[in-house]
Amino acid sequence: MSGPSTARHLLSIDDLDGDTIRALLARSRELAAGAESRARGAIAALLFFSPSTRTQYGFQSSVLRAGGGVISVDLENSRAGSNWGESLADTARVLSGFADLAVIRHSEADGVYDFAEASTIPVINAGNGMGLRAEHPTQALIDLFTIEKAFGRIDGLKILIIGGTHLRAFRSQIRALAHFPQVELFVLCPDKFWMEFADAEHYRRAGIRFTRIGHLDEVKRNVDVIYHNGITERRGEPVDSFYALDRARLAEMRADAIVMHSLPRVEDLAHDVDGMPQARYFEQAHNGVPVRAAIIEHLLAAQRE
Ligand code: CP
Fold first, then answer.
1. β partners of residue 161
2. Pair 156, 182: CB distance under 8 Å
3. If phi over 0 gives left and psi between -120 and 50 gives alpha, with beta otherwise, what is residue 44?
4. Where are the alpha helices (DSSP H) in the chain?
5. Which of 47, 54, 141, 268 to mutate to test the pocket of ligand 1 (most atoms within 8 A of CB)?
6. DSSP for 164-215?
7. What is the rounded CA–CA span in Å between residue 270 and residue 246?
8. Residue 4: is its pLDDT beyond 80?
9. Is the CB of residue 120 below 6 angstroms from any atom belonging to ligand 1?
10. Whether the Cβ atoms of residue 240 and residue 266 lie closer than 8 Å to each other
11. 103: helix, strand or coil
């Protein structure tokens, strides 16, 4: 089949409404507690055109734990990578006959959309570059799950996100948090990485509210979550220590608050935070297994409808 896809994909967090997000969180809790997967035996094609540890191997773990299989597309030795350069659309058409769903990360924001348009199996955006269409929806769901697991709720919490508001994970997180209108959201971001006008306008029109702060000290004694999301995607780009977290800077945070980070860290998160009881970022990464399993179940069920 070569026509446009009718499959149900997860390309943006906006592909999920609030009820579906809540249902996915509830199902993730069941799966984390040992419920049997409804996606038993499913085969996932994994295409990572840019580097990943948590998302790539987290999906692999989710599928394998569910008794399924993985086709991990080797970009060196397949036609999909730069060695040959078969189009994303043709790769999608072929893999649609080999797997039940596809997970793709691409350095170009449109790459994931080009792939999904041709795919007849559900496609999950595992992070797509930079720019206005860039998102990381599964990261946002993992973040919500981690927060809910820590506090038993999301609504009513005070959450600080530190990091580049131009980054794909932030763009999904702020949209996801909008489904919890009692959340009080604070954002600390250098001017250099502040959001584009189009993003700000989108959030304003969608009624997404947040308060931009200028220093961690303004809120660190009061917030429930201090989430460092990374300042830049470019490895080696220096991180201003003003925006970095370490044990001394976090000393006065609440004992019952949590510290999250989407990882990988650079100088933005000191290793001396790891021993703090509030540090949750490795657990956050591990939470990807049940959350991604729930997402896979959901998309496969939607595909069968
Ligand atoms: N948080 C995250 O997306 O990590 P990876 O780039 O390692 O997948």
1. 187, 227
2. yes
3. beta
4. 18-32, 54-65, 88-95, 109-118, 137-151, 168-177, 197-205, 281-286, 288-304
5. 54
6. -TTSHHHHHHHHHHTT-TT-EEEEE--GGGPPPHHHHHHHHHTT---EE-S-
7. 5
8. no
9. no
10. no
11. strand
Atom of ligand 1 nearest to the CA of 53: 7
Percent of the chain with pLDDT over 90: 90
**Rounded Cα gap, residues 27 and 304, in angstroms:** 18
> What does the pLDDT look like over 87-136, one tens digit per residue?
999 999 999 999 999 999 999 999 999 999 999 999 999 999 988 999 99
- Are residues 239 and 175 in contact, defined by beta-carbon separation less than 8 angstroms? no
Please tell me the distance between residue 220's alpha carbon and the centre of ligand 1 in angstroms: 26
Q: Considering only CA atoms, which residue is closest to atom 4 of ligand 1?
A: 54
CA of 305 to the centre of ligand 1 (A): 31
Q: Is the C-beta atom of 55 inside 6 A of ligand 1? A: yes
* Residue/partner pairs of 25-29 with CB below 8 Å, 24 or more apart: 25/141, 25/144, 25/145, 25/148, 25/291, 25/294, 27/294, 27/297, 27/298, 28/141, 28/145, 28/287, 28/290, 28/291, 28/293, 28/294, 29/145, 29/149, 29/290
SS3 87: coil
The pTM of the full predicted model, rounded to 2 decimals, is: 0.96
Instruction: State in Å: Cα 262 to ligand 1 middle.
Output: 7
Q: What are phi and psi of 74, to 5 degrees?
A: -85, 110
**239 pLDDT tier (thresholds 50, 70, 90):** confident
